[in-house]
Amino acid sequence: MFENLTDRLSHSLKSITGQARLTEDNIKDTLREVRMALLEADVALPVVKDFVEAVKVRAVGQEVSKSLSPGQMFVKIVNDELEALMGKANESLNLATQPPAVVLMAGLQGAGKTTSVAKLARFLKEKEKKKVMVVSADVYRPAAIKQLETLATEVEAIFYPSTIEQKPIDIVNGAIAEAKVQFADVLIVDTAGRLAIDEEMMAEIKQLHAAITPAETLFVVDAMTGQDAANTAKAFNDALPLTGVVLTKADADTRGGAALSVRHITGKPIKFMGMGEKTDALDPFHPDRIASRILGMGDMLSLIEEAEQKLDRKKAEKLAKKIKKGKKFDLNDLRDQLQQMQNMGGIGDMLDKLPGMGNMAQMAQSQIDNKMFTRMEALINSMTPAERRNPDLLNGSRKRRITLGSGTEIQDLNRLLKQHKQMAKMMKKMKSKGGMANMMRGLQGMMPPGGGGFPGQ
């Protein structure tokens, strides 16, 4: 979402990083470029003005003149102000109330409310160990009720049935009574999409809010609407006492204006970001980590959290023991490694979160064919167990059979075998003395001249 903004800001800040002294004159050009970068990212104009002014005041102030490296201090100020713009830290849901804690979801049509209800239910179940019930009060779109029922089954949340003949207030009151009987900790209410200018629909949600007094009222907004998302959130906030915002479709090719404008315009924090279609694609919004990524400084904390959640520790330990005993790294092991990397979002996504990688993530994305990993997995799956354990068995006729079975070419298979050999060599070096240093040298050898890319690309 922040790719273009990151590019522009890293380029703007490069010129000032080496400055020995910061004056109003030498930061003027950089600030102009920062302003342009933010406007291009579709950040609301009042937000840009306040942000640039805050950076300018601090940059020519005492804290910079006393600093050993004023240029780097300037980058830190930009980072701090980005954090302040989006809220200092992640604000979690406040569910400290007598169960069931009601979470009301509001927003425009097509913003992704129903999917976000399911994602939030899964998040609360898995991360916070809550018993969750979901209900649809969208009586204007019959498919919404059915959609929520299907998603509730998928995330294993309790579904409270409703029909289009009922009134939204009756549906939610019935759900609250049932949630008490079922000892549910949280009840998430999906409401109909409405426009802020539709007075009748806004009156309906106001009445619903007054009748059920929810612990949290979340506004679901599509990141692709840019700065307009913040204005819509403000219109809703004027009608409803919102407690936070859920930003959906943040994985899309949007310009990031919504994330940077919402907090400043509404005064309400972004609590979650939807990062994909699947029900596990909901991340708590951490302003400090996002600011760090926008400035190309990576996001190690998110990478570590993701690794803890998505990597199969048993498989990793099994492989480590196998290598320690001096056993061969075979094609089964390579397939496991490929699957683990895909679970982490692929190479580009991992590089993007590493500090100091700069444009390496984009270079990797452009030079690596993402379908390559799918082809490699298909090739390994087309082999017999004996061939996976011992690739030396592969002669001409076996290779033809494997490529026909996987719909690939002979050169794809030869490339896979070459990469497997290089990885097996690296694993051997890991076992020997100075293993890590040897492995890094091996990795360097695999990279083509010029840095980016992978063998055979």
Automatic annotation (TrEMBL):
EC number in record: 3.6.5.4
Binding site for GTP: 107-114, 190-194, 248-251
Keywords for this protein: Coiled coil, Cytoplasm, GTP-binding, Hydrolase, Nucleotide-binding, Ribonucleoprotein, RNA-binding, Signal recognition particle
Catalytic activity field: GTP + H2O = GDP + phosphate + H(+)
Domain SRP54-type proteins GTP-binding intervals: 269-282
GO biological process, one term: SRP-dependent cotranslational protein targeting to membrane
GO cellular component terms, semicolon-separated: signal recognition particle
Coiled-coil ranges (or none): 297-344
Superkingdom of origin organism: Bacteria
Pfam family for this entry, one: SRP54
Subcellular location: Cytoplasm
Record InterPro entries: AAA+_ATPase, P-loop_NTPase, Signal_recog_part_SRP54_M_sf, Signal_recog_particl_SRP54_hlx, Signal_recog_particle_SRP54_M, SRP, SRP54, SRP54_GTPase_dom
GO terms assigned for molecular function: 7S RNA binding; GTP binding; GTPase activity
Family affiliation: Belongs to the GTP-binding SRP family. SRP54 subfamily.
Subunit structure: Part of the signal recognition particle protein translocation system, which is composed of SRP and FtsY. SRP is a ribonucleoprotein composed of Ffh and a 4.5S RNA molecule.
PANTHER family: SIGNAL RECOGNITION PARTICLE 54K PROTEIN SRP54, SIGNAL RECOGNITION PARTICLE SUBUNIT SRP54
Domain notes: Composed of three domains: the N-terminal N domain, which is responsible for interactions with the ribosome, the central G domain, which binds GTP, and the C-terminal M domain, which binds the RNA and the signal sequence of the RNC.
Function summary: Involved in targeting and insertion of nascent membrane proteins into the cytoplasmic membrane. Binds to the hydrophobic signal sequence of the ribosome-nascent chain (RNC) as it emerges from the ribosomes. The SRP-RNC complex is then targeted to the cytoplasmic membrane where it interacts with the SRP receptor FtsY. Interaction with FtsY leads to the transfer of the RNC complex to the Sec translocase for insertion into the membrane, the hydrolysis of GTP by both Ffh and FtsY, and the dissociation of the SRP-FtsY complex into the individual components.
NCBIfam families registered for this protein in UniProt: ffh
Record protein name field: Signal recognition particle protein
Organism: Oceanicoccus sagamiensis
GN (gene name): ffh
